[in-house]
Amino acid sequence: MGTSIIMGLLFYFLSIIQYWMLSGLFIGMYEERTENKKMDITSLFRGFDHGMPIFMYLLIMIGITFAVILIPMIILILGASSGSEAVMGISMLIFYLFIFAFSIILGVLFMFTIQFITFGGMEAWDAMKTSAAIMKNNLGTGFVYFILIFLLNLVGVMLCFVGLLVTVPMSMMVMYFAFQDVFQIESKDATDEIIEHLV
Fold first, then answer.
1. Of 51, 116, 127, 182, which has the fewest CB atoms closer than 10 Å, so is most exposed?
2. Angle between helix 139-158 and helix 85-109 axes, rounded to 10 deg
3. Of 22, 14, 17, which Cα lies nearest the Cα of 169?
4. How far does the chain reach from its first CA to its final CA, in angstroms?
5. Do residues 94 and 72 touch, judged by C-beta distance below 8 A?
């Protein structure tokens, strides 16, 4: 039990700090490509320079998730308490399909939030609103992007999880280049006009 608790806490801790480390990775990649600064392991911790906005982003996402997931959770509980295996099975299917669809929608709408916080210096809510406003006009592209990322990491899982050591970094790099491709942050002429046009 003690080992399980420790592993659970470690996994939870890593799942949280990954957002700051993702920001640090973006910073390291940007500086390596534009300023010839070699990226190293310390670059991952530079995301903590944006500590509070990213923390607020996580709090908002948790709040949205709990608020939206409440109704399907009630359906699942009612299905489990009905005593019928068929009803319980249908309830679980509805619950997991809803969670899957909801996760994709959130992922697509807010896919550029960390990048806007990192490169635009935005606060959490402003970054989320900007990302959502842009992605609402590009839902199809965002959906295809997330499916491809999902399939890429699924391959990593199928390779006894060891493949994730390759596919997860690749996914993070794709996130950087997707943002760069749209907003041209590496260009000296990058301005807010691009964002305003996309919104």
1. 51
2. 120
3. 22
4. 50
5. yes
